[in-house]
Design brief:
Layout (H helix, E strand, L loop, with lengths): L9 H7 L5 E5 L3 H13 L3 E5 L2 H10 L4 E5 L7 H10 L7 E6 L4 H10 L3 E4 L4 H56 L4 E4 L2 E8 L7 E7 L4 E9 L3 H14 L8 H7 L7 H14 L7 E9 L4 E7 L5 E3 L5 E3 L17 E5 L5 E5 L1 H4 L10 H11 L5 H15 L8 E8 L12
Parallel strand pairs: 1-2, 1-3, 3-4, 4-5
Antiparallel strand pairs: 6-7, 7-16, 8-9, 9-10, 10-11, 11-14, 12-13, 12-15, 15-16
Helix pairs in contact: 3-4
């Protein structure tokens, strides 16, 4: 009866896996090779024999043996030399090397291990011990086979993942084109008011949105949105919001009232509309910040709501920079938020910059944020630039400050009240 804690019997093990194993037997003695080879063949191994190291290496090149059983002393070189040469060869899998020794000298064993031997057998070789040592080696080879199979499967899985990732990247590149298409116009001119837009997602797609649309003959609406988070979720909500702020009057929430003969929806009312939409229709934890403003391009009067977005910067003609607004609550968080409206007037020579937190929260190597002070410094430094030239220079400065890293989307709206002598910026292609 076989004990449950005992290793599998040699005979049954040989009948299962060992039939596929190849043993190279290296010994100068033909009688010794015949004796050991007979025992191995009876145990189910395939056996090849060599009387010299040169012959053994030739057999290793012809067909990789699973086991090498070599005498310490071979005709042309030692078993240690064979072991070193065997380890130096390129193989598809691991080969188990056993050395036959006349003594159990610790120094010989140490040299054998350094040469790459796995195990030792003392002569005269006991048939039972021989098969037991090979059985131990078989377990190692089996583990190695399983690891190789697992690695092959892992490589196949990684190849599939790369293919999937490549497909996702292609889709995201197309999605980026579609999202960039949401901003149909990157510049606009209304009397002496010039508008310029910047939109730079941190990844393929992002959650920022900027734009403008005419309301009446003397007014234009402009907006800047920043959806929380990144990636597909933020981009999908951005796309939905863009529909409500598109130039099409039948879809634009701010223009619906104007089409019925009433005035356009006030900025604070528009923020409340989006807040209700987020809480009642959008089943997600996402929220967004917003600046929406009505600008009278005849008088320069601005009526604005700030809903959690960074403070707009108003740079006066004399270079003074004012921070507009008190912050406000984000959209889609509170059931009864307070959205305050702000009114001010722009004069010829003034410009208004509405920037997302991807700009003000850019961090340097020390982790220090650019902040509104840093943005104000950029505005002063680039006071001689206008339009897209200013926005590109600002974007470059922010990138340099953040060491080229851009963890968040970057967007901005630049409103310039041109004086008659001011140059008009070119619209980018």
């Amino acid at each position: 009866m076989t004990s449950p804690n005992r290793s599998p019997a040699i005979s049954s093990f040989a009948g299962a896996v060992r039939t596929a194993r190849q043993v190279l037997l290296v010994d100068a003695s033909a009688a010794q090779r015949r004796l050991i080879g007979t025992r191995l063949r009876k145990a189910g191994y395939r056996v090849s024999e060599a009387e010299s190291v040169a012959q053994a290496l030739a057999l290793c090149d012809a067909a990789e043996p699973d086991f090498v059983l070599s005498d310490w002393n071979v005709a042309d070189m030692s078993g240690l030399d064979l072991c070193r040469a065997f380890r130096a060869r390129d193989r598809s899998g691991y080969g188990y090397f056993l050395l036959l020794t006349d003594t159990a000298d610790e120094g010989d064993i140490a040299r054998g291990l350094e040469a790459g031997a796995d195990d030792f057998l003392r002569k005269p070789v006991s048939g039972q011990e021989l098969l037991a040592r090979l059985s131990a080696g078989e377990r190692i080879l089996r583990v190695e086979d399983e690891l190789r199979a697992s690695n092959a499967q892992l490589r196949q899985t990684l190849d599939k993942l790369r293919e999937t990732q490549a497909a996702i990247d292609r889709d995201l590149r197309e999605a980026r084109k579609l999202q960039q298409g949401l901003v149909r116009e990157r510049a606009g001119r209304f009397n002496q008011i010039q508008l310029s837009l910047l939109l730079r997602p941190a990844g393929h797609i992002g959650g920022d949105l900027v734009g403008f649309f005419p309301i009446t003959g003397d007014r234009v609406g402009l907006y800047a949105l920043d959806v929380s988070g990144h990636g597909v979720t933020a981009a999908l909500l951005t796309a939905q919001l863009s529909v409500h702020l598109s130039g099409a009057s039948d879809q634009n929430v701010a223009l619906r009232a104007a089409q019925s003969g009433s005035d356009a929806v006030p900025p604070a009312a528009l923020a409340h509309f989006f807040n209700n939409m987020m809480l009642e229709e959008v089943n997600t934890e996402t929220y967004f910040t917003m600046i929406y403003a009505e600008l009278n391009h005849v008088t320069g009067q601005v009526r604005m709501v700030q809903a959690g977005h960074p403070h707009p910067m108003l740079q006066k003609a004399d270079g003074q920079v004012l921070r507009i607004g008190r912050g406000g609550m984000p959209v889609g968080v509170f059931e009864t938020p307070i959205f305050d409206e702000i009114e001010f007037r722009m004069e010829p020579g003034d410009r208004l910059l509405i920037a997302s937190d991807g700009i003000t929260e850019a961090a340097n190597a020390a982790g220090r944020l650019l902040g509104e002070d840093g943005l104000e410094a950029i505005m002063r430094t680039n006071a001689f630039l206008g339009g897209h030239a200013f926005l590109e220079s600002m974007a470059w400065s922010v990138s340099e400050y953040g060491r080229g890293e851009r963890p968040d989307d970057m967007s901005a709206v630049l409103v310039e009240y041109l004086r008659p002598a001011d140059p008009v910026g070119l619209t980018p292609r």
